[in-house]
Amino acid sequence: MQVWGLTGNIACGKSLVEGFLTSAGVPVIDADQVARIVVAPGQQALTEIIETFGERVLNREGELDRTALGDIVFSDSAARKRLEEIVHPRIHGHIGQTLAQLAEQGTPLAVVSAALMIESGSYQAYAGLLVVSCPEEIQADRLRLRDGFDDAQVTARIASQMPQAEKVALANKVIDNGGSIPETERQVVAWLSSLEGPRSKRFSND
C-alpha cells in the first residue's frame, strides 16, 4: 500500500482536499479527528491532560474543551510541548493501527492528514507529501470570514505556523487552493491520475 502525507497551514484548504480524496475513494486518516478519539472521556490521555492543566480544560459534560486548552498552549511553548508528549504517541499509534488494517484489506492508496506533519517530522515516513497552499492574503481573508478573527488574531495565527514557502519546498506535490473550488478539485484528480501503476486506474475519474 502506498501512503502519502497531506498538510497545509490554517485556512489553506487541507480539509477541502481531504473531501475530494474521500469522494474519489481514497481513505483519509485525519490526525485531528484521531486526536479527538484519543482524548475522549475515559481515555488515559484525557486523565493526563487534566492532571497537567487542571479541570479548567473540561466543559460541563466532562469532555475536553479544545478552545480552553488551545488558549493555554498557544502562547506557552512549554505547555504545548507537554501536551504533545501526552497526545502525539497515542495519535501515531492509532494511525499506525488503521494503516495496518487498510493494508490487510488490500487498499492501494491511503492519505494521512496532519497540520503539523512537517514540524513533527512524521512526513518522512510516507511515500510522498502533498501540501495545500494559497496566497497569504486569501488565507487571511478566510480566517476573518470563517473564524471571525480580527487583524491581530489573523497575524498571530499565521505567524505561529511554519511559513507556507518552507512547506511547499518540501512537497512532492503542491495543491494550489488560491483559485476556485473546481480548480482545486481538478488538481486533486490530476494527481490521482498521475500515480504510477494500478493505483492511478482505480482512483481516476475515467
Question: What's the topology here?
Answer:
Blueprint lengths: L1 E7 L5 H10 L4 E3 H8 L5 H10 L12 H9 L2 H28 L4 E5 L3 H4 L7 E6 L2 H12 L3 H9 L4 H7 L2 E4 L4 H14 L3 H6 L3
Parallel strand pairs: 1-3, 1-4, 2-3, 4-5
Can you walk through the features of this model?
- There is one protein chain.
- The chain has 206 residues and is α/β, with parallel strands linked by helices.
- It has 2 domains: 1-27 and 108-206, P-loop containing nucleotide triphosphate hydrolases (Rossmann fold, 3-Layer(aba) Sandwich); 32-106, Rossmann fold (3-Layer(aba) Sandwich).
- The protein contains 11 helices and 5 strands, in the order E-H-E-H-H-H-H-E-H-E-H-H-H-E-H-H.
- Helix 2 (31-38) crosses helix 5 (77-104) and helix 3 runs antiparallel to helix 5.
What structural category do the secondary elements indicate? alpha/beta
CATH H-level homologous superfamily name of the largest domain: P-loop containing nucleotide triphosphate hydrolases
Number of strands: 5
Beta-strand share of residues: 5-15%
**Largest beta sheet, briefly?**
5 strands, parallel
> What is the H/E order?
EHEHHHHEHEHHHEHH
Based on the coordinates given, report the CATH architecture of the largest domain: 3-Layer(aba) Sandwich
Bulk shape: globular
Helix content: 55-70%
Rounded to an integer in angstroms, the radius of gyration calculated over CA atoms is 18 Å
Spatial order of the strands forming the largest sheet:
2-3-1-4-5
Name of the CATH class of the largest domain = Alpha Beta
